[in-house]
């Protein structure tokens, strides 16, 4: 089953990876090798961080590349290759989670509050201090696991991959505003979770 063509919000000239993908579609195997080498590490981590099962993450990772290969003949360079690649990965994870959980688990549940931009760091008010403390880093990792799936994905794509809210929205098939809300609530929830767990550690 081929993936849908990439969205149309990015110019072709902005993405060298598109050129490689088009070259691969024309029969250049070396072009695919270059794409694979560049994206294999981040893409694999994307699966591992959300699946927490190395074997299943490996299976989904291989399936993602299989879909890239199958879609090559119909590929159109209308968006950044990375956005298209992670949209394929996103769809695989959604299919996996939906097979295990009811559809309602994908809904964002936000409490009512004044409309403000939550710009504070997702780690703490002083990110450097948090990163210097191994225990808090481990607490953060545990807290990320407890986030709702849509918030977790948005957080990981933003923090680990450096994707903007607009790019994450393209990947997840959501609006930019919804994506900003997911990031805002993920940041807020992670800070509260780490603070609470840190207090428990201090009192042990």
Automatic annotation (TrEMBL):
A GO biological process held by the record: DNA-templated transcription initiation
Keyword entries, A-Z: DNA-binding, Sigma factor, Transcription, Transcription regulation
Protein name: Sigma-70 region 2
Cross-referenced PANTHER family: RNA POLYMERASE ECF-TYPE SIGMA FACTO (PTHR43133), RNA POLYMERASE SIGMA FACTOR HI_1459-RELATED (PTHR43133:SF8)
Domain RNA polymerase sigma-70 region, residue spans: 35-101
Listed GO MF terms: DNA binding; sigma factor activity
Protein species of origin: Shewanella piezotolerans (strain WP3 / JCM 13877)
Similarity remark: Belongs to the sigma-70 factor family. ECF subfamily.
């Amino acid at each position: 089953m081929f993936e849908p063509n990439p969205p149309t919000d990015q110019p072709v000239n902005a993405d060298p990876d598109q050129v490689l993908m088009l070259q691969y579609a024309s029969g250049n195997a070396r072009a695919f090798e270059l794409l694979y080498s560049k994206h294999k590490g981040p893409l694999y981590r994307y699966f591992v961080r959300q699946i927490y099962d190395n074997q299943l993450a490996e299976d989904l990772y291989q399936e993602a590349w299989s879909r890239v290969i199958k879609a090559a003949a119909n590929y159109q360079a209308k968006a950044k290759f990375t956005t298209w690649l992670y949209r394929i990965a996103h769809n695989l994870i959604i299919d996996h989670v939906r097979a295990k959980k009811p559809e309602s688990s994908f809904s964002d549940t936000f409490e009512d509050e004044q409309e403000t931009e939550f710009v504070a760091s997702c780690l703490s008010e002083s990110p450097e201090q948090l990163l210097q403390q191994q225990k808090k880093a481990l607490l953060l990792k545990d807290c990320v696991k407890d986030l709702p799936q849509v918030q977790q994905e948005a957080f990981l794509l933003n923090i680990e991959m450096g994707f903007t809210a607009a790019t994450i929205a393209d990947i997840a098939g959501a609006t930019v505003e919804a994506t900003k809300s997911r990031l805002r609530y993920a940041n807020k929830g992670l800070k509260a979770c780490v603070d609470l767990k840190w207090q428990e550690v201090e009192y042990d």
